[in-house]
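Input sequence (85 aa), recorded before submission:
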Amino acid sequence: MKTKGSQLGKPSCWQLIFLQSKVNGAPYNGETLPGESWDWPKDTYFQRRLRLIKILQFHGYSRPTGEAVQRLLAALFLHPSMIPA
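Predicted structure, token format:
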């Protein structure tokens, strides 16, 4: 299937991308770019939620609900306000 650009005699978006790639002789300076030190985010809301769900499942809750969370926190002697958001 042809795109509008190729119908008008112009290269398509993908053709432009490949024409500008290093293997097709286009200039490329990726090796000279400065390196960055990077790491995955830690202690995010989703990681904390997953950890809580795993604890609930370990204690026999297959579908954690607000009530199940409150019971588990009470069993652990933690007040819900002490849990980080």
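Checked by second reader. The helical segments are 4-7, 13-19, 45-58, 66-75.
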